[in-house]
What does this fold into?
Amino acid sequence: MREPPDSIDTQIWVRMSPWYKAAQRASHLAHIEKADDPEFKEILLNSLRHFEEFSESIGFVEGWSEVGHNFVEVRWLPHKLRYAYDYRYLTEIFLIIAIDGPAASGKGTLARRLAAHYGLPHLDTGLTYRAVAHALMQVGLPLDNEKLAAEVAASIDLGALDRAVLSTHEIGEAASKVAVMGAVRRALVEAQRKFAASGAGAVLDGRDIGTVVCPDADVKLYVTATPEVRARRRHEEILSGGGVAEYEDILADIKKRDARDMNRADSPLKPAEDAYLIDTSEMDIESAFRATLDHVEDVLSAKQA
It folds into this structure.
């Protein structure tokens, strides 16, 4: 195999089968087709463009395989991270990123962007609690029965979480009632840990990821902003979607949710001791993403030093 030229400063040099290029491109296109958020779709499109440019720069080895499988042979990787490929699936970076923070702090957007950037599966754990509440509401079951709620939590399919359905204010309020139940939290934490331990790496965001769900995560982030800024963001989001809301009501609700999340006995919202604090009060999303990405890269570099 040729040695990488001096001009390659990313320390990536691979031997790539033609099959892999086709499979990876198909995977990108499938995710792009399913994306309903224009901003997220653009992130995926940029990721595809990056892959196309990268793959064209390295060339391919026709028919190259080992033990009957087409895959990519990796010689150098960014920060010496390992990739694993086989003929059926791709597992890119074995990296767990845990992101915590209060409502409307920007943690969800940052989580989705980091997941797209590193090619990692993403789980918004808040949706898992919403899914429990939604399932109970659909069949008219009470929201204060912990045994029933825990049984529902144990059966939640993390692959079937519908953000559009679960993001309503009504379901959010119901979710806050089941989220304080210890049995519900234990069932969902177990499912969330399995998601993180799938072997593909993961980005998870929520309120107890770095402290409870993934205390050994490679990167821990705590994303926050002042209650006033978060209320303004939520207010603008509702109005832009054609809804009606009062800023003062949203601010009061955010403060109430903060108090409930931070003071609950089971898994309260708080930064992990080794979490990196990102205050987005004075940042737009692009600035916050760049600051977050810089920190992740610094952590990875330090781990491999």
About this structure: Confidence is low (pLDDT under 50) at residues 1-17, 58-93. The radius of gyration is 21 Å. The longest strand covers residues 219-224.
